[in-house]
Amino acid sequence: MTSVQLLYLIIGIVVADYIFDQSLDFLNLKSSKSELPQKLTGLYKPEQYAKSQNYLKTQSRFSFITTAFSLSLSLLVLIFGGFGWLENSISTYISDPIVLSLAFFGSLFILSDILNLPFQLYSTFVIEEKFGFNKTSAKTFVMDKLKGYLIGIIIGGLLGYSLLWLIFELQQQFWWTALIVIAAFSLFMNVFYTSLLLPLFNKLRPLEEGSLKEQIKAYAKKVDFPLDSIFVIDGSKRSSKANAFFSGMGKKKKIVLYDTLIENHTEEELVAVLAHEVGHFKKKHIVLSMIISFGQMALMLYLLSWLIFNEELSAALGAQALSVPINLIAFGLLYTPISKLTGILMNMLSRKNEYEADAYASLTYEASPLKSALKKLSVDNLSNLTPHPTYVFVNYSHPTLLQRLEAMDKLAI
Ligand SMILES: [Zn+2]
After folding, report:
1. How do residues 45-91 score in pLDDT, each as one tens digit?
2. What is the pLDDT at residue 218?
3. 277 C-alpha to ligand 1 centroid (Å)
4. What pTM does this model have?
5. Do residues 244 and 344 share a domain?
6. Most buried residue, 57, 267, 284, 360, by CB count within 10 Å?
7. DSSP label of 38
8. From ligand 1's centre to the CA of 398, what distance in Å?
9. Does one domain contain both 344 and 402?
10. Is 277 a catalytic residue?
11. Annotated catalytic residue: which of 25, 128, 277, 354?
């Protein structure tokens, strides 16, 4: 293909992706019903339900504006060869190809972050604030940004430097060594996320002695779950939305509970939520999804190795000669349809796993506190109770509340 044809192809993909996402958003918004599904009547008070629908509308409208903005920006940059221009400008100051590539990605990141800043501010301090979710202070927002930049420079710099070095040294053969580096890095992050990265953003404290801790321990013992420690994290510092997860590999598992979750749930509900998480572990969902992402990464890097040294591709984005960083961007855009497809497949698998984890919690603990916890979480987060099935199929990593409740009811029969 010539560089002009490649540019048209890339623009076609960007526009098609935009239309695809927007149509789904539109379908989803239209399927929002003013009546609650029968099984969920009584879950919301009428004014609460109206609020949840208003939340969906506000978010959809906001995302319509942000995506239209980023589409226009992408098209302008593509049509006027903005990527080539940026790389060319930096190359007058930096000649080392690896440092040049890092500077190129760094500048792109900073530029896009500055352009996105008004939207981030509006989302956090206007929308989330209006619906009562926002707990982020201006200070926390600024500190998060600074820490994010610092971590981006350290981790992005180290990982980026290693990967670019492999590309320039090994040429087309880089892909399998890069795969090993990325796999080792994600394993490292998985092990040390809770102990290294999370404390930079949140305060973690051990769960105090008491009946909740006793109940969690008793459950872990009953199902033979290798529980190491239980932490409470100050999620309330940023948002009233709640969560729970566990991390760590092998024999040492750390459970992390959001303070917002503890606040609004009974001890039985909290144990049931953890039983669901334990279900993911016991059913090997976590290992399986790591293996699958490894396979996806292998496919992506292999395909990348065929295009990374393609001169036409660089020219398509406005570079004057072969450019590795520009080809990385071009590849990312060309890869969109494949990542969309793998994303849908991953969501299908994830929804199946959610049912399995719910079933595990129902069998090893109890269904009713899990059901009431899921209902509470839906109400507190103003979740959309009637999303469009196609939207769910493409975008939902979890089944809808109604689907999960119905699946658990079937178990009981
Ligand atoms: Zn789950």
Report:
1. 778 788 888 888 888 889 899 999 999 999 999 999 999 999 999 99
2. 95
3. 6
4. 0.86
5. no
6. 360
7. G
8. 7
9. yes
10. yes
11. 277
